[in-house]
Amino acid sequence: MSQVKKIVNDEIFEWIKDIRRAIHQWPELGFKEEKTAALISRALKKLGIKYQTQIAQTGVVGRLITNENAPTIALRADMDALPITEDTGLPFASQNPGIMHACGHDGHVAIILGAAAVLNEKPPEGNVVFIFQPAEESEGGAKPMIEQGALKGVNVIFGGHIEGHYQVGEIGIKTGVHTSYTDYFEIRITGKGGHAARPHEAVDAVIIASQLVVNLQTIISREIDPVFPAVITVGYLRSGSVYNAIADKAVLKGTVRTTDEMIRTQISDKIRRTASSLAILYNAEIKVILKPGYPPVINEETAVKLAIRAAEELVGKEKTISIPFPSLGGEDFAYYLQEIPGCFVRFGAAKDGHEMMSSHSPKFDFDEEVLRIGAAYMSELTRHTIKKLRKY
Ligand code: NI
Known about the structure:
The protein is 36% helix and 25% strand. It is of the alpha/beta class. It has two domains: 2-179 and 295-390, Zn peptidases (Aminopeptidase, 3-Layer(aba) Sandwich); 181-291, Alpha-Beta Plaits (2-Layer Sandwich), CATH 3.30.70.360. The strands form four sheets. Strands 1-2-4-3-5-16-6-15 form an eight-stranded mixed β-sheet. Strand 3 (72-78), helix 4 and strand 4 form a beta-alpha-beta unit. It is elongated and about 80 Å long. It binds nickel (II) ion (NI). Nickel (II) ion is lined by residues 103, 105, 136, 161.
């Protein structure tokens, strides 16, 4: 801890805590992060770091350039909030009704600005690009940021996520595949409406939808090799309008999570096959719409080694967690890693003695000490990586 305090002094810590709270109070949805972008711009300006705004609509990129020919490291934060009504009772709770920073992205911005402040005080012998990207929770801001040049000249990229499953002070790192494909599906059933008392004259969309939900789960349990992680979740199901009529239509929406391309294709095929079989079985029409989501985050080996070493030096071996399994969550940091090597880490942020509130919950909150540790870690990791790259 003393090491962390040496790297991120009280002044910087207070500054980034204020930033986090200001962003928390005025959360904005994906591609609408205007106030957030303005706040980031002001912070970079105060530090004297050059920056560009309106990249991928609301994104901001800061550049700390010390030597054009030296290695360049990028640090990335996402900026967007979620359509959730906050119920934390915090003094700096959301002032935007129905919108909340329930995933810690307010903290991510503060962490990267903290790292910027630290690195700016004593610039490394290389360059650092600070990427603040919109819309991680919705359509994905990473891809348009890349298309608009955010990674230009960058050799290695790092990012991280606040993580309630680990105690504050712990840093979690996963080698290789870290998150999953996040594909979307929608299934539209068209039967035939009718009187509740005369089912033989109708085709009941509710029965078909119910069968479909159960059959989708047996794809996972009976048709996929169990050594591969896979999930199908139907999160949305709508049908019917009144209790005494047979519904003619039903709509299901959900997500398929996999970490392997082959399993992903198998599941898509099986969803289509299940739907068309049920259509024949029940004399209905069933339309399946599949849309690809984010690809998996795949952490690169050398970047992982650097990330582990930096964590062990900063928080110690016991608090450097080797994450054993991939998460079936999604993260559009994956797109950066399709372009250049890098690593995505987890910043432990559980509040001591508090029940863990999962992210995307209206009660989500984290221990702000993570801001200090995260900023110290990202700046140290940057220095380590620049040193390593300069050797070649
Ligand atoms: Ni998130």
